[in-house]
């Protein structure tokens, strides 16, 4: 009996692990597909990324290294860096530009449906983080990054309430906005500070511990 119980436990654990991995993969794949479609329209002249200095190669979503093993006693995290071409701001300001609103209008209902739909119980939190470059006062940068991340969250909630009302309350409970200022500045291959890429928005999807 003991061996049968142990086998059942391992089978159950494998199912949970597989389910979480599939959910995280879906989140990443959906983001990439949405971004590719958006960038294609930009390049075809159907959208105008005002104020964006990103080149086509800058528009590729950057997925951070794979999350820690699910056996660890902490949530796994899927991290997605949103290129400036998709979510952009005027220098020193926190108001979303039209291309950013368009991107969020298309992307967030898909994220909400996964975060709050079947299998969404595995998602513990959806965190939106804003980052600045190193120019300017530290406290001002911290406040600016917080304002930008909140602007993304506010627009996301507005979109979800209009397009996916059944997921609104759930997403409201799981979503947070954090400003990180000039923390974690990015550098190019030569080790030089890359201010364009340092100004970014990151989505972190925290999964519940296995």
Unreliable residue runs: 1-20, 36-43, 46-74
The CATH class, by name, is Alpha Beta
The total domain count is 1
Record field, number of beta strands: 5
Envelope shape: globular
Helix percent band: 40-55%
User: What is the rounded distance between the termini?
Assistant: 25 Å
Architecture per CATH nomenclature, i.e. the level-2 architecture: 2-Layer Sandwich
- Order of SSEs: HEEHEHHEHE
Strand order of the largest sheet: 1-2-5-3-4
Average pLDDT over all residues: 75
Biggest sheet descriptor: 5 strands, mixed
What are its keywords?
210 residues; alpha+beta; 60s Ribosomal Protein L30, Chain: A; 5 helices; disordered N terminus
Give a description of the structure:
By secondary structure, this protein is α+β, with helices and mostly antiparallel strands. It has one domain: 2-Layer Sandwich (60s Ribosomal Protein L30, Chain: A). Helix content is 47%, strand content 14%. It contains 5 helices and 5 strands. It has helices spanning 2-43, 98-116, 138-163, 168-174, 195-198, and strands at residues 62-63, 77-82, 123-131, 175-179, 200-207. The chain has a 5-stranded mixed beta sheet with strand order 1-2-5-3-4. Helix 1 packs antiparallel against helix 2 (98-116). The protein is globular and about 45 Å long. The two termini are 25 Å apart.
